[in-house]
Amino acid sequence: DEAEWAEFEAGEPGEEGGDAAPQPVLAVVGRPNVGKSTLVNRLLGRREAVVQDTPGVTRDRVTYDALWNGRRFTVVDTGGWEPDAKGLQASVAAQAELAMKTADAVLLVVDARVGATSTEEAVAKVLRRSKAPVLVAANKVDDRRTANEVHTLWSLGLGEPMPVSGLHGTGSGDLLDAVLEAFPATPRELLASGGGPRRVALVGKPNVGKSSMLNQLTGDQRAVVDEVAGTTVDPVDSLVELDDEVWRFVDTAGLRKRTKTASGTEYYASLRTKGAIDAAEVAVVLVDAAQPLSDQDLRIINQVVEAGRALVVAYNKWDLVDDDRRRMLEKEIDRDLIQVRWAERVNVSASTGRSVAKLAPRLRTALESWDRRVPTGQLNSFLSDLVAAYPPPARGGRQPKVMFATQARTRPPTFVLFTTGFLEAGYRRFLERKLRETFDFTGTPVRLSVRVRE
Ligand code: GDP
Ligand code: GDP
User: Fold this and answer.
1) How far away, in angstroms, is 33 Cα from ligand 1 center?
2) Which positions does UniProt annotate for GTP 2 binding (predicted)?
3) Which residue's CA is minimally distant from atom 13 of ligand 1?
4) What is the pTM of this model?
């Protein structure tokens, strides 16, 4: 058994082998019937795995590959098992002991409707000594009454219990975020803090042409690009050379492999999309030029904006668009994309390769805007001129004053305005538009927040 775990510890080799860092391992422990496998299925976004309704049914220990926010990791579901001669408590404690020795993080699942039993107390005693971080999932929080009980699990001494419902899926995103945070940093994340190729997500609804586009972009150059100087390449990503620059297309493993094994459910597909966007700096959203823009397209575009990533909208299958439609389309696009009229756009065909070369300059423009910092002096002289010419509308007889502003962050550009009163949404949008025009934020969301000082 120890040997089996040691294998998990080493991590599975990446699909392309190479020197990719081993995937971190999350071990899931808990009493039988607390909902471990239901929760694991939920975390993986798939439902095929069998859930046994009989308490204590013996299952093999199972490992799964999981992907969240662009990070691959292995989940070991210790499953149901029969308590051995030493009894339930001893068995669960032994399971926990093994988990904390071998995994990068341990998830203790507790049935929140039952609370902490003597078994959980015994396990917690073991886990409190763990060097690997331990998270507590309070499962079966399906309703408010149970939610109110969750705090009692603080008594386990393992930190904040996280409410989840394996059944409904609520809380699983937060739990996954916490799991990733608990893992030790990898080279990939060190890369994320600067340096290395810029990270691009290629997203869009099913059948819009993502894998065709990836093929078009990589062509037969992958062999060359994989050699790129000394960086660890996460096997889920593709390095692509475009316009004399190497780009990292994130989470492309599922696009490259046409097996589409795990992408069966829409739920899984949307997790993938979110993961890719979060892992990227700029997203290329493919939409189908031959069809009207759909709610699903808009949802994905919106996800990019909410995540604060730079945005390029690529109208794909342009080869299918006839002349009549072409004339209509520009207007249609302007109308459909009014919320993101600042986005970079390009009309392409993944099949023919048309205009695919235009992608790189669009990506660059969007990223430059995303990175742009406006010096405070320049920002404030722009702002005082603007506000003098167009004062904010008065409310309740009081004229709000904009005192000063700073750009608090880049990636995306985020501005904070200090005012003496509330600024209406319309006026804030006006300021944003002027900021965009003046300092050129083509291709990036811009955030503006207002601090009222009375
Ligand atoms: P395991 O033995 O610890 O892996 O637990 P299972 O995943 O097999 O779940 C045991 C039972 O709890 C099954 O009947 C599940 O349907 C049920 N269950 C799992 N998660 C939840 C949940 O969030 N809410 C409720 N009400 N039941 C759940
Ligand atoms: P994905 O599900 O987003 O990865 O989409 P695929 O790349 O699998 O493409 C779905 C279908 O659209 C396939 O039949 C492709 O051949 C087709 N397709 C993709 N891009 C284009 C394009 O630019 N023009 C045309 N005519 N067909 C395309």
Assistant:
1) 6
2) 204-211, 251-255, 316-319
3) 53
4) 0.57
